[in-house]
Specification:
CATH architecture of the largest domain in chain A: Sandwich
Number of domains of chain A: 2
CATH class of the largest domain in chain A: Mainly Beta
Number of strands of chain A: 9
Helix content of chain A: 25-40%
CATH superfamily of the largest domain in chain A: Jelly Rolls
Order of helices and strands of chain A: HHEEEEEEHHHEHHEE
Largest interface: A-B, 48 and 48 residues
Shape of chain A: globular
Largest sheet of chain A: 6 strands, antiparallel
Distance between the termini of chain A: 45 Å
CATH topology of the largest domain in chain A: Jelly Rolls
Strand content of chain A: 25-35%
Oligomer: homodimer
Radius of gyration of chain A: 19 Å
DNA sequence: CGTACTTTTGAATCGCATCAAATCTGGTGG
DNA sequence: CCACCAGATTTGATGCGATTCAAAAGTACG
C-alpha cells in the first residue's frame, strides 16, 4: 500500500514528518492476529487503515470485555505515555495496519512543533466527537439519537453518510432494523428528508 | 477558592506552569449563566471545578441538543486549535470555573515541554476513557454495562465509587432504579460483592 | 428537627432487540 | 452478458427488559 493512498484514510498522516514516515511500516493483519498483549512493552503506535482491531481485557470469569473497537485511525494513543500495554489488541477483521516506532514518534512530537500541534488537535477533536457520542448514546429513543447525530456531526442540519446504514446503526447503538424503521417513520411524518445517503432535518 | 484545593479536583492543574497560573482566573458561575456563545471568538480555555456546564446547540426546530455535559475538568478542548466556538456553553448548575487565557495557554504548551506532555497524556487518557464508555453504552443489558464498567475502570476487578449511585447510573446510561435492581440481582446470584462503595467481581 | 436528596421496592407500560424471511444491491467469475 | 453470492435493506411478529410513575424508608446537613 502506498503512502498517498493512506493519507486519504487519515488526514493526520499528511503531517507525519519524513524522518518518522521513513521508519513507519505498513503491514497486513489477518483476522485473529495478535497485535500486542497485556504487559508487552510499548514498541509501536498503531493506526488502522483497513479492517478492525479490538482492544480486549478478560475478567476473572474469563469473559471477554471489549474496551475499544477501531476501524479507522489510531488506537491506544495513551500507550505513547506508558511503557507497557494494559490490554490485548487483536485483529477482529483482516486488514492493514501502520506501525509507528514509538521512540521515533515521541521524537517527532518533541522536535516538530507543527506535527505536535496537529497531534494535539487530532486528540482534541476525537475527545469532542466521543463526548458527543456518549451524550447521544445516553438518549433513550431511536429518533432522538438520529436527530442528535445529525445535529452534532452534520453541517446545516444535514449529514451525508459515508458508511452503510448497518454500520451507522451500530454507531448509534441501535439494531439496524430499529434504525430503518425509525428513519422511515421520521421521513413519513416529515421530520426528516432522506435522499440516498443525504439525510436532513426539516424545520 | 485557593489553588492547592483546586489541584485535588484535577491532577493536571498541578503541572500548570507559574506564568500561566498567574493569569488564570477562578470565577463563580450561577445556574443559567452564559459562558460563551456560538460564534464568539475564543479567549479562554475552561475547567469546571464545581457545578455543571453544558455545551448546547439548537436545531432548526429550536430543539436544544446537548453536545456535552461537564461536571469536572476541561471542556471544549478543541477550542485551543480554533478561533471561534461552535456551540453555546451554559452553566447548568451553580459552581466554580477556571478561566485560562488562550494565548497564555498556547504559549505554555509551546514552551514548556513537561506541561505539554502532561496535556497530551491527559487528552489521550480522556480518549481512552471515552472510547471505553461508548463501547459500554453500546451494550444492551444493565448487568453487562455494570460488569464492563468494573472491568474497564476498576482495578483487579473492583471499583470504589466516588459518586452517589444515582450519578453512576446516569454515567452508565441507566435509570437509577434499574441500576439498584440489577446490582441487587447480581449480588444475590453471587456475581458481585458489594461492600458500601466498593463493588467487586466474584470469580 | 426539618429539609433535600439518595436509596429502595413495586407495578404498569412501551420501545427496542431479536428472530425470520423476502427483496435488493454490488461485485465476481464463468 | 448473465448467473450467482454476500451483504445490505426492508418488513413482520414476538417477548423481554428498561423506563416511567409512585411511594416509602434511609441519610446527610444546617
Amino acid at each position: 500500500m502506498d503512502w498517498p493512498l493512506l493519507i486519504e484514510s487519515q488526514p493526520l498522516l499528511k503531517h507525519v514528518p519524513n524522518e518518522l514516515r521513513h521508519v513507519t511500516q505498513c503491514r497486513n493483519m489477518t483476522k485473529g492476529d495478535t497485535i500486542f498483549r497485556i504487559g508487552d512493552s510499548v514498541r509501536n503506535l498503531f493506526c488502522v487503515v483497513k479492517g478492525e482491531v479490538q482492544l480486549i481485557r478478560h475478567d476473572i470469569r474469563g469473559t471477554k470485555i471489549v474496551l475499544q473497537r477501531s476501524r479507522s485511525g489510531f488506537f491506544a494513543e495513551a500507550s505513547l505515555g506508558g511503557t507497557a500495554y494494559h490490554c490485548d489488541a487483536l485483529a477482529a477483521e483482516t486488514g492493514v495496519l501502520l506501525f509507528f516506532p514509538i521512540a521515533a514518534f515521541r521524537t517527532a512530537l518533541d522536535q516538530n512543533a507543527a506535527f505536535r500541534n496537529v497531534w494535539i488537535e487530532q486528540l482534541a477533536r476525537e475527545v469532542r466527537k466521543l463526548r458527543a457520542q456518549c451524550e447521544r448514546l445516553n438518549l433513550n429513543g431511536a429518533a432522538d439519537r438520529i436527530i442528535h447525530y445529525i445535529e452534532s456531526e452534520g453541517i446545516n442540519d444535514a449529514v451525508t453518510l459515508k458508511q452503510p446504514r448497518k454500520a451507522w446503526a451500530s454507531e448509534l447503538g441501535l439494531s439496524h432494523e430499529s434504525l430503518y424503521r425509525t428513519l422511515k417513520r421520521l421521513s413519513d411524518q416529515g421530520t426528516l428528508s432522506i435522499d440516498g445517503n443525504k439525510i436532513s432535518l426539516v424545520s
